């Protein structure tokens, strides 16, 4: 895949970039390692000052970078601006809390025969982040903000279709005052990642992306015995029980499915509805999906823009077409309109069986799978019948049902009567084939630290 900005609304190539050579990659790793040797000695106060400055710059420039994100991957302009604002919030969160999160943890010195004993969180060094295109800034910032505040330095291998967003982030941190080399963007292809991972000066890696990409990076890092954090997508359940506010649930369901044009790992994808609520919920849901405006993502009136890549649209089409040929029913959407750009309409399908690919595979586009179940046990069974385990939603006002969903939904995140999203304050990550490790909160900043035991006699 070329490193290029290709407008998904038109298919036009706007700008291309050359990949770094092996020698340039080597030099970048060297700069990062040399910088870490001094940067790790900076204080939390110094790092926090630079991080707050980055947040201020991002707030001031959010409209400009929003247009860049929209041009590169097709998210609506409003959602791009909101993403930039969320990044600034995340930066401030770690600027304010890193010192507390990474404070020394004293233990009972007498119990271990010491005059003083404690656990100390210390940076690891150079960390490689392999990031996806769907949230060009937020996916990176939720790694970069805690990593830099912990005293690590970062190398970014971003998706090849968002190079301008990637370069903006490096420039942002430099202009904010971070020492040169603290955060570098590597414009490289996927085949060049192994060179970075196998370099002994690279201490760890984090990846958000597809399961095959995660397997590849994790395998290399396993061979090198390097720490990794993986977030590999999901096929989130959205369960609706009879006691739910169906009007609100249906409205949130639409947003949960088509957010980011349906291209979000934590977007609700499988809508599992109790039979007593099925008729009314499905009516409301389909009605609201049909009302969405698909079009130019730069137009403020647009609700759903194009998919980010042509191949992405093809993948969505194949899953829907295969399901329909096998007996699934399309309630709305289901076929793309002719014309330029990689658009696909908001779609709802039902009558899905276990033999269909769509039953098990993640659909990365604005397509909702609708299931009818007879009771709570059946809802949990369908919800958990996937290899993924990232996020989940349950809609019920029954306290006993809420308690069961909180415990028995197999996911890293359970949201009850609300849409799954990520907050700096909450740990974020998955189980099963959605990955391992956690981002955000205190847990996220500690992932790439050495928890060193210190004993003083």
From TrEMBL:
Q: Which residues form the Aldehyde dehydrogenase domain?
A: 3-454
Family, per the entry?
Belongs to the aldehyde dehydrogenase family.
Keyword list (alphabetical) reads:
NADP, Oxidoreductase
What organism, scientifically named, is this protein from?
Answer: Fodinicola feengrottensis
Protein name per its UniProtKB record: NADP-dependent succinic semialdehyde dehydrogenase
* InterPro entries assigned to the protein according to its UniProt record, in alphabetical order: Ald_DH/histidinol_DH (IPR016161), Ald_DH_C (IPR016163), Ald_DH_CS_CYS (IPR016160), Ald_DH_N (IPR016162), Aldehyde_DH_dom (IPR015590), ALDH_GabD1-like (IPR044148), GABD/Sad-like (IPR047110)
Membrane as UniProt keyword = no
Would you say which domain of life the source belongs to?
Bacteria
């Amino acid at each position: 895949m070329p490193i290029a900005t290709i407008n998904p609304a038109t298919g036009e190539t706007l700008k291309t970039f050359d990949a770094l050579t092996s020698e340039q990659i080597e030099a970048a790793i060297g700069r990062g390692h040399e910088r870490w040797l001094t940067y790790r000695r900076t204080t939390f106060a110094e790092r926090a000052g630079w991080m707050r400055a980055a947040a201020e710059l991002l707030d001031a420039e959010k409209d400009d970078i929003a247009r860049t994100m929209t041009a590169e991957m097709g998210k609506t302009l409003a959602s791009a601006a909101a993403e930039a604002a969320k990044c600034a919030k995340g930066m401030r969160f770690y600027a304010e809390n890193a010192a507390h999160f990474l404070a020394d943890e004293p233990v009972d010195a007498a119990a271990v025969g010491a005059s003083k004993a404690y656990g100390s969180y210390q940076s690891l060094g150079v960390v490689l982040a392999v990031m996806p295109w769907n949230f060009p800034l937020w996916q990176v910032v939720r790694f970069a903000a805690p990593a830099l505040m912990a005293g690590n330095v970062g190398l970014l291998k971003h998706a090849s279709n968002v190079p301008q967003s990637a370069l903006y982030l490096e420039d942002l941190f430099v202009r904010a005052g971070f020492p040169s080399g603290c955060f570098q963007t590597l414009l490289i292809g996927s085949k060049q990642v192994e060179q970075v991972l196998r370099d002994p000066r690279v201490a760890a890696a984090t990846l958000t992306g597809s399961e095959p990409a995660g397997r590849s990076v994790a395998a290399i890092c396993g061979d090198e015995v390097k720490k990794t954090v993986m977030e590999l997508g999901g096929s989130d359940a959205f369960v609706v029980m009879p006691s739910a506010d169906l009007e609100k649930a249906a409205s949130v369901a639409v947003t949960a499915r088509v957010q980011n044009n349906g291209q979000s790992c934590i977007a609700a994808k499988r809508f599992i509805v109790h039979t007593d609520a099925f008729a009314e919920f499905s009516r409301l849901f389909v009605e609201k999906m049909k009302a969405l405006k698909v079009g130019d993502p730069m137009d403020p009136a647009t609700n759903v823009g194009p998919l980010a890549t042509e191949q992405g649209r093809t993948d969505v089409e194949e899953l829907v077409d295969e399901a329909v040929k096998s007996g699934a029913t399309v309630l709305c959407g289901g076929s793309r309109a002719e014309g330029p750009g990689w658009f696909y309409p908001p779609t709802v399908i039902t009558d899905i069986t276990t033999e269909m690919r769509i039953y098990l595979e993640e659909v990365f586009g604005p397509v909702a799978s609708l299931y009818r179940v007879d009771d709570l046990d059946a809802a949990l069974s369908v919800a958990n019948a996937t290899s993924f385990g990232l996020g989940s939603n349950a809609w019920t006002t029954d306290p006993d049902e809420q308690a069961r969903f909180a415990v028995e939904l197999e996911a890293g995140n359970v949201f009850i009567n609300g849409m799954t999203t990520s907050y700096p304050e909450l740990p974020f990550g998955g189980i099963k084939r959605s990955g391992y490790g956690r981002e955000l909160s205190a847990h996220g900043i500690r992932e790439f630290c050495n928890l060193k035991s210190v004993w003083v006699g």
